[in-house]
Structure formats: C-alpha cells, structure tokens
Amino acid sequence: MKCIFCKAGNSKPGFVTVTLQRSNTTIIFKEVPAEVCENCGEYYLSEDVTEELLKRAEEAAAKGAEVEILKYAA
After folding, report:
1. What are the pLDDT tens digits along the chain (74 aa)?
2. CA–CA distances in Å: residue 64 to residues 8, 22, 59
3. Domain containing 48: what range?
4. Partners of 32 in the β-ladder
C-alpha cells in the first residue's frame, strides 16, 4: 500500500511500539503488528489490533495505572 503521509514509500508487515495516553494514564505497547512504511516509518494498524489495544488500555486506566508497558499478544 502506498503511504498516505510521505507518498513515496510502500508499507510492509512489521512491528511497532504504540503509546496511548488518557488523563493520567500512559500505556506503551511493544511489538505491535502493523503495516510500516519503508520510507518514513509511518504505521497502520488493523481494525482488530486497534480494538485489542483500546480494550487493554481501558483495562489499565480502570485499575488506576499511571504507566504500564505491555508486550502485545493477541
């Protein structure tokens, strides 16, 4: 897929680190599967991966975590 940001690179399967913040909670997910632009590094997450990340972030916020670092595992 042609990158919509740099318009020069194509994306290929890879892994990224995703940081989500909500109020006083910061969650860092490592090794998240994504399509990554080979030129600029911009990444695209699938709908399923996004749904899983948001679910786990909600759980972390609900238990009052300030910072949580998780390895992605679906």
Report:
1. 899 999 999 999 999 999 999 888 999 999 999 999 999 999 999 999 999 999 999 999 899 889 999 999 86
2. 42, 11, 9
3. 11-71
4. 16
For residue 2, give the DSSP letter: B
Closest CA to 44 of 71, 18, 8, 73: 18
Is 1 inside any structural domain? no
Indicate the pTM of the whole model. Answer: 0.88
CA distance 10 to 13: 10
The H or E element spanning position 27 is strand 25-37
Query: What CATH number does the domain containing 24 carry?
Result: 3.10.20
